[in-house]
Amino acid sequence: MGQMIKVGMADLKICKAPDAVTTLGLGSCIGIAIRDPQTKIGGLAHIMLPDSTQIKSQTLNVPKFADTGAKELVNQLIKAGANRMRLVAKIAGGAQMFSFQGTGNDMMAVGERNAQAVRKVLAELKIPILSEDCGLNFGRTVEFFPETGDYVIKAVGKPPKTI
After folding, report:
1. How far apart are CA 32 and CA 66, in angstroms?
2. Is 134 a residue of the active site?
3. Within its chain, how far is the Cα of 114 from the centroid?
């Protein structure tokens, strides 16, 4: 058993088997797990918002956004020895944590927008999404094991689920 490396909010970490990565409390956030099945190098990004281009800040927090976070995760995996052509992804999170009366307000559906943004950027990067556990209305804690590709989803009051 390797060590379990914690990924904070708006953060990303990579590791090599037998180590694993985890992030707590994905609500509307998305956990993007990417690995190279051959080298067993993998990583996890905790994405909070869909699009960095809306932010007019000089000090951009790269892992916070779907577009920049996914690309940075891929760059770090390749630097660590992963093969770009073999990368595969799994995603989880993107919950609708609060119900809004008369939900014609798209601005509030951050979870769904995050999920769509992550799917779009992974498609642009040509990284297939093998499985996902997104949406609904509960938070998730995730653990990703690059050795096997297991992405374990834990939610309060539900049995752990591996995707």
Report:
1. 9
2. no
3. 10
Residue appearing with tokens 């009051």: 157
Q: What is the pLDDT along the chain (163 residues), one digit of tens a residue?
A: 799 999 999 999 999 999 999 999 899 999 999 999 999 999 999 999 998 887 776 667 899 999 999 999 999 999 999 999 999 999 999 998 776 555 555 555 889 999 999 999 999 999 999 999 999 999 999 999 999 999 999 998 999 999 9
For the CA atoms of 104, 110, 113, 117, what is the dihedral angle to 10 degrees?
Answer: 160
β partners of residue 131:
90
Q: One of 29, 44, 89, 115 is an active-site residue; which one? A: 29
d(Cα 37, Cα 57) in Å, to the nearest integer? 36
Task: Report the run of H or E that residue 88 belongs to, with start and end.
Answer: strand 88-93
In 12-153, which ranges are continuous DSSP H helix?
Answer: 66-79, 110-124
